[in-house]
């Protein structure tokens, strides 16, 4: 039985293009913002989490595609002294509501 992220059972060029297209659309069509730490904290450095950053709370599935991204951001923020809670749920995958 497959327990990974259901969206990524088969990554095809079409899926990759669609995901990138969604990201660029979210960024107002500005492709260069995909690696901007304001748009994506994954690309932030420890120094960008210093100052007045509120506590961060992550809920992430152990089988979802963005588990590593969530852990990375939580670790960088914690290194900067931010209060971080990271809950990882076994056998769960990503669900978008909205």
Automatic annotation (TrEMBL):
Biological source species: Symbiodinium natans
Name the UniProt record assigns to this protein: Alpha/beta hydrolase fold-3 domain-containing protein
Any Pfam family hit: Abhydrolase_3
GO MF annotation, one: hydrolase activity
Domain Alpha/beta hydrolase fold-3 per the UniProt entry, residue ranges: 25-95
